[in-house]
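Suppose a classmate hands you a notebook page containing two proteins, each written out with its sequence and a corresponding row of structure tokens. How would you begin to make sense of it? This section walks through that situation. The first entry is reproduced here exactly as it would appear on such a page.
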Amino acid sequence: MKLNQRSFGKLYDKLASKIYRFVFFKVRSAEIAQDLTHDTFLKGWQYCQKNEVEFPQAIFYQAARQQIADFWRKQKFQVVSLDAKPLEMIDDQPSLDERLAKNDELNQMFAVLATLPEDQQEILTWRYLDGYSYRQISRILNKPSGTIRVTAHRALKQLKEKWNQC
């Protein structure tokens, strides 16, 4: 199916906060996450206009992963000051992600989660933060759902072990 404006709007409403959170976890900057989320939906829209899409969520998550990879690839060639402060959204009240990021326990959990391989991080994020089924994740990653279940189980086991060591 090709997306029309109305179905794209509904999909955007459904996915925008999830895609933003997914990107934010990878780049840890609200401003950059907003920009990459915008670019993700633009690329996804362009793709869906030209191609028949069976599972549009997968297209948008794949686009987000590509945007994140491109962002970090470009960062390799930039000098980063260790004194630089993280970019923050210009807003009267901090966003939910910023408030949660300030929580010490959550930061510790992110640190533990970051020790897992990237595919395990993504699967746990999609499964437990975004509430996707194993089947939905398998469609996003184009892997069998059994593989996703096993990977999630192993990742949770590793996460629990590392968390208990803290």
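The notebook's second entry, a different protein, reads as follows.
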Amino acid sequence: MSTRQAIPLSPVRAMARPGIARKALAAALVAAGIFAVLAYLATPGVPRGVRNLSGGPAKLSAFADENGASVSIEAFRGKVLVLNLWAAWCVPCIQEMPSLDRLAARMPAESFAIVAVNQDKGSEATARHAFKRMNLQTLKLYLDPSRALSREIGTRGMPTTVIFGPLGEPLSYREGAAEWDSEDFVRYLESLSPRAPGPRRTAGASD
């Protein structure tokens, strides 16, 4: 039996369809090993377009860094993890990547991890070429040519971003591009970290 725990964004969306009982949906999600609830009403402090999730630590398939070494989300435990799924063919993905790069430069690395994982199926060369053309300064290239993360998370399009807490628990997600280094998102992410926010780095600042 697989030890992976999917993050069922697809069942979460099903809650909005008529004729599906909330009790039955909750039972299905518990059976899948994780309980997720879509927050319909705006939550103070949560940026527009961000949907809340709840559940225990998620276990997803490993992916690869630019050198081919295996990486799992467990490697980022203790930090707020922003896991972004993108593809070279996805125009909104390319458009939002600079803001993720600036966010990665701005947030303290000891408390936050900004991880963008490419989902181009079986095409590492395409991913590497697109990543190089963007001339990003801080983000690292991660690869998932099997698209295992997309299947386990239940994405219906790209970009999709899932935010995890320091214990590996899924807290929220967003479908579509965003200005990730905006003040709204920065304040929101800081609110998720148990560590008191100190002076933040600005993009381009040296350690």
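A careful reader of the second entry would note: The chain is about 30% helix and 15% strand.
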